Input
Amino acid sequence: MNDHSAPQVPSGRAQVPLGRRKFLAAAGLTAAGAALAGAGSAAAKAIAQPTAAGAVSAAGTFSVPVDTVQHTRTWMAWPDDPTIWTGRAGSRRGGPSLSQIQANIALVANTIAKYEPVYLCANPAAAAAARKACPGSNITVITTIPVNDCWMRDSGPVFRTDGLGGLDAIGLNFNGWGGNQIYTNDGKVASRVAALLGVPFTAAGLVGEGGAVETDGAGTLMATRSSILVSNRNPGMSQTQAENAMKAAYGASKVIWFAGVAGQDITGDHVDATSRFLAPGKALVQQPNATDDPYDVWTKDEINQYNVLSTATDARGVRIQATKLGGPDYYAIRQSDPAFVGSYANYYVCNGAVIASQFGDYRADAAAKTKLQSLFPGRVVVQLNVDYLGLGGGGIHCVTQQQPVA
Output
C-alpha cells in the first residue's frame, strides 16, 4: 500500500474531485515524519498490554456499544499547529488554514453542545482561543491532555460498557496513520483521557484508528482490509489475527470485511466514510451519485460495500438490512479540490440529534437529510457546512468521539 500516491483520476471526469480520503500530501512531511516510518511495527510489538491496574474484566464482559446509545459527553480536540494547517495548496492538509479548520471544529462543538456536554482537549497555549470560540457552559476545555491535531475519532479512546454500570476504554495504538504525521501527543490521548476519567485502559492487540472500525453493539464489526491489513499499521498480521484482536478489543464475535481502497489516502479508506451501523441488523451505505464515473475506485468501493453488507449476516445469524444513502453530485457541490471528502455517512449521533454535513448540492443535501430523519425518527437532523474538514480529508464523525453512559 502506498499512502502517498495521488488519487487515480478516471477518464472523462478529470475535473471532478474523486480522491475523497486524501488527508495528507507526501510533500508536507518533514524529517520528523521519516523518523516515524517504523512506528507501525513498534506499536504492533507492544499490544494487548493493560496500562492500568485491573484494566480488563473477563473476556466478553465489556463491549463497545453502538453509537446511538445515550452519551455522557462528546470528546473533541482543538488543533493549533500551523505547520499542519498551512492554508496552502499542496500542504499537509491540502489547503485549509488553521483558522478555517478551527472555525469548523468550533461549529461542530457548539452544535453538539446544544444536545450534550462536550469535552474539548486543547494545548495550554491555545486554551484561551478555544474557550473564546466555544464559550458555552456545556463545553469544557481540558488543558491537561495535549494534542497534535483534531481527529479525536482516530486518536481518542474507544469506550466500552458492561451493562452493569461499568465503563472502561481501549486504545488502538494510534501511530499517525501509519507514520504519516507526528503523533507525539495524539498517540497518548486515548490513555490520558481514560486516566483523567479514572477508568481502566487497555491497548488493543492491533494498530488502527477509531474511524476504521464500526460496531453494531451486538457482536458485529465491519472494516476495510485496506485500513487494517497494511504494513504501516500491522506488518505481517494475518486477517485471522486481526479479527481476533478486533473481537477481543470490541467485545465482538464477527467481522465483516470490505476490500476497501488502497493507496489513495493515508486512512486506507476508513469504513466510517461509507458504511455505518444503525442498530443490530441494520446499516446504511453511501452510494454513488448518478453522475459518478462507474470506473472510479471510490464508486466501485461504495457499490462493493453495499453488495457485501446487504448479503451478510450479523453475529446472531440475522441477515443485515442495508439502506442506501445517496451521495452528493460532485459537479454541484461548493468544492472542487480533489482531496475533498463528500460523505453524508460520516455523521455523528448525539443525544437527541444527528449532526451531518451538507455540501451545497441542494437536491442531494435535502435528500440526505430526509433519509437520515427517517432512519433516526426520534432525533433532530442538523446539517452543517464543514467544508474545511472535508478539504482536510475528514468529516464530523472523524473529529468526535462519544463517551456512552455506563
Observations:
- Residues 281 and 317 are 9 Å apart (CA to CA).
- Confidence is low (pLDDT under 50) at residues 1-59.
- The chain has twelve helices and 16 strands.
